[in-house]
Amino acid sequence: MLSLRNVESGYGSLKVLRHLSLHVGRGEIVSIIGANGAGKTTLLKTIVGLLRARDGQILFEDRDIATTRTEAIVRAGCSLVPEGRQVFAPMSVHENLLLGASARFHRGARVRTNDDLDRVFALFPRLKERVDQLAGTLSGGEQQMLALGRALMARPKLILLDEPSMGLAPLVVKEIFVVIRRLRDEGSTVLLVEQNARAALKIANRGYVLENGRIILEAPAEALLANRDVERAYLGRDLDAEAAMDTGR
Amino acid sequence: MIYEPDKECMGKDTLAALQLEALQAVLARTYLHVPFYRKRFDESRIDPDEVRTLADLGRLPFTTREDLQANYPYGLFAVPLREVVRIHASTCMSVVVGYTRNDIKTWSDLMARVLVAGGVSKDDVVQIAFGYNLSTGGFGVHYGAERIGASVIPTSTGNTRRQLKIMRDFKTTALVATPSYAALLGRTLREQGTPLGALSLRVALLGGEPLTDSLRTEIQETLGVVATDNYGLSEVMGPGVAGECQERNGLHLNEDHFLVEVVDPVTLAPVAEGQSGELVLTTLSKEAFPVIRFRTRDLTRLLPGPCPCGRTTRRMARVERRSDDILIVRGMKVDPRRVGDIFAEIEGHLPAHQILVERAGAMDSLTLLVGVEESSGFDEVKKQQERLERLRRGFSSELGLTVAVRLVEQRSLDASQRVVDRRKS
Question: pLDDT tier at A249 (50, 70, 90 boundaries)?
């Protein structure tokens, strides 16, 4: 579905992604894990064209989208749920969702959004309850649901998720991840960037470890969960300290 | 049957894309974690970031067995030792290799592929007559057979009579052994007068040493099996690198885990498509002990055309010889294959044997170690001495230098290593 080959990207003179290659197969959840500053967000921004790749190929359904405008990429079926939700605070839940479908509007055409709204409300009943509430007054978890729902309104084939669990209570995180898995089960493809690597790998099929803008490991998700290097660096366990405690030092 | 059809029957482009991703990752990883590779790349002015296509692999330096030896024991491990759950070593102990938990899992999967290709299923009773020891053979096959769900009998090597008793009584359906040992089992069976009908044996998976056409025919006839060849080496993983399917037309390489090159052993340039040369392997998935462009010294070629079995992985010809096979002893060229032929001429069959080359002062010496069954009687001293003398004379005159011959217990002989050259260490 998505295939990156030798993609380079960055900001000004700062090179963030170095000849990065990865792929996401249809129906997969692929998780990118890595420390702060490894290039995770840059990667997603580059895929949807918010940042331009300086080199390399980005193939979405076999079409090179490295120079395609963002609106066209969304229209082609690739949507980003940005870090920190970025919902439109002064607008209602309903209006936020309709904006998500904007890529499907074009002059003179009537777009039916009722089915899409129903689908979003089925996934997130809480949004239906708050449909006329202003987005800015929602809780963090609800805003994340709204951001995800807004992306779904564009009927994406591939959903890019940037840190969906950030700043959320564990219970809410669980709820969000259940929905992500459900989206996959219903046929969507997901590229998931997460600090919460353990939760991400638990629902993912495969994962990549990103370090300093380079992929240093690609493996099935369960193999990454079992990799002690990954465990120490990204899964938040200090094995050295644990070993010291085990031996009573 | 194909164990992992999605992996073994991939389209060419899909495979190439996966290989490039994995290659870039393994280069980044080794550059970061293994000083030897970092130094090598820096010295050759190769920035791993500049590897953008699979063809760029050709710009990287080779790694030789001597490099591995120079980093004895743990110098090339890419993870800290506490993440290593298994350590194996080459027969002469000069190369030490490690496996993480994930490496063991990969090994099991790849060996399962080879076993399934060789005709093994979960309904089989698999007798594994590879050594369960420091070498990789026994354990690798064992994991693969368990992964499939077959019933595994870990007989390990040696004790031919017991092996045959187990084979008959336990109703073994699949035998895993070196070709020479499988042939010995077949001959012993015939000597015992046991009819093939008394056995349940169906398939034999042979590895660890070269399998010739005549040896395969002999094994298939004396044991009543379909015999397939498989290939691997400790430095790269152990068994599981490649294996024949039922078509028996070359060994399918597990290309999603190993990048394969064939180069001219002298110029080190890639050979033309399908030409014979030295096999060079790069590991794509290994965590504990990755190798980059490892020169195997094994001579083979890549076979053209698709395989009727449906696997799309490329096939290599059976390895029949090695680029460093030819020994120079006191100025005389000694080809270990010729040694085998001479045995056949003198004794009418090929006993388990090992060629030992040593140096005392400036003088090289060549000793043939010939395996004898412990039960064949050390008491028949006169007979043994006559045999020794016959071999000594025969070999000395054929090879043109004085050859010492020693009879040793078959069990103490590691037939997988046909040549031990002690001059180098």
Answer: very low
